[in-house]
Amino acid sequence: MHFWYMGLMPDENVKVQNVDFFKVDQNTYDPKTKVWGTDQLIKDNNARTVTIPSDIKPGMYVVHHEIIGLHFAWRENKEKKTSGAQLYPTCFSKWCKN
To answer: Quick check: pTM over 0.85?
Structure first.
């Protein structure tokens, strides 16, 4: 599964942790083709086209891409009290002008 989020940076001194993000795309599981989004991403040479919404305010945005790996989600670590789902986040900045 993978998800794309964007968040407006009010100014360059704001920490990414304090940005309000909104989802612009996701690719999870397609029951028609029985293909997971990450498998489709691999098939597409790790590339995906995402459309930036046309109604957003101009400014500097942080784009956050996140892959959630479920390959070990069934495992449970009783010592750490966590499941095996693995997160692979990535962020980068982008100027958006109208």
So the answer is: no
